[in-house]
Amino acid sequence: MLPATDLLAIFAHPDDAELLAGGTLIKAVDQGHRVVAVDLTRGELGSKGTPALRAEEALAAAAVIGLAGRECLGLPDGRLANHDDGRRAVVEAIRRHRPRVVITHYPIGRHPDHRAASELVRDACFLSGLANYPADGERHRPDKVCFAFSYREDTVKPTFVIDTSAQFERKLQAMQCFASQWDATTRQGGEVYPTGQPLWDLVRTHDARAGSLIRTAYGEPFWTAETVPVDDITALGGATL
C-alpha cells in the first residue's frame, strides 16, 4: 500500500496543476508534505504536442515540483463527464493515495473538461468514503476539497490565498517543462485569457494580484464551499489598514 498523501492534486490535463496551483504544490513539498498529482486525461486533443511528449513533460515538471508521484488516469480528453466510469477511476485513485486534502478545478471554467473535472472530483471524494461503492481499494474520504481559483473573472472572492512568493520562480520553471504547450510567444493557456502579453508575464501579473490580496508578492487563490474556521482571532494574517 502506498503511504498516505497529504495533498493530492487532481486536474483535467497535464500542465493544469502547474498553471493553477504549481506554487501551492511546491510550497507543500517545501513544508515536508507528501504531494501527488493525478492527471485525468493525457491531453490527446491538445492542438500542440502529443500524449507521449506531454507525459514526458509532466514527469519533468513533477521533478521540479518535488512530487512524490504522478499518474494519468487516461480518461477521454474533451469528453470528461461525471459518470460511473470516470467516478470509479477517480475513486480508486483517491483510495490508492488516501489524501488528507484534494485540490482540483474551480466549478466554473473556460474549458468544458475543467468544469466537468470539478464536479467529478468532488463527487468521487464523497463516493470514495462509501464502504459499498464498487471500486478497488479501502474506503477513504479526504478531509478537505479545495478548488483552485486562479485566473477567474468572477466577482466571488477566494476563501483563502496561499503565499507563494518564495515558490513563484520554481512554479514558472515547472510550467516551462511543458515546452510543447507554452513558450515565450504563447499568449494564453488554460483559464488565462490573452492580453497580448507573453504567458509568463500574464501568470506573473495574475499571481501578483492574488498575492496583493494578502500583502505578499505572489499568491494562489482557492475557494471552498464551506466556511474556513479560525482558532485564534489574534493570529489572523493580512493587515486591515
By DSSP, the count of extended strands is 7
Please, what is the oligomeric state?
Answer: single chain
CATH architecture: 3-Layer(aba) Sandwich
Give the strand order of the largest sheet, numbering strands 1, 2, ... along the chain. 3-2-1-4-5-7-6
Structural commentary:
It is a single chain. The protein is of the alpha/beta class and 241 residues long. The protein has a single domain (7-226), classed as 3-Layer(aba) Sandwich (Rossmann fold). It is built from six helices and seven strands. Strands 3-2-1-4-5-7-6 form a seven-stranded mixed sheet, sandwiched between helices. α1 (16-30) crosses α5 and α3 (84-97) packs across α4 (112-127). It is globular, with a radius of gyration of 17 Å. The chain starts with 6 loop residues before the first strand and ends in an 18-residue tail after the last strand. The mean pLDDT is 93.
Task: Give descriptors for this structure.
241 residues, Rossmann fold, 7-stranded mixed beta sheet, 7 strands, alpha/beta, single chain
Secondary structure elements and pairings:
Blueprint (H helix, E strand, L loop, with lengths): L6 E5 L4 H15 L4 E7 L9 H15 L3 E7 L8 H14 L3 E5 L6 H16 L16 E5 L11 E4 L4 H9 L22 H14 L6 E5 L18
Parallel strand pairs: 1-2, 1-4, 2-3, 4-5
Antiparallel strand pairs: 5-7, 6-7
Helix pairs in contact: 1-5, 2-5, 3-4
Summarize this entry quickly.
With 241 residues, the protein is α/β, with parallel strands linked by helices.
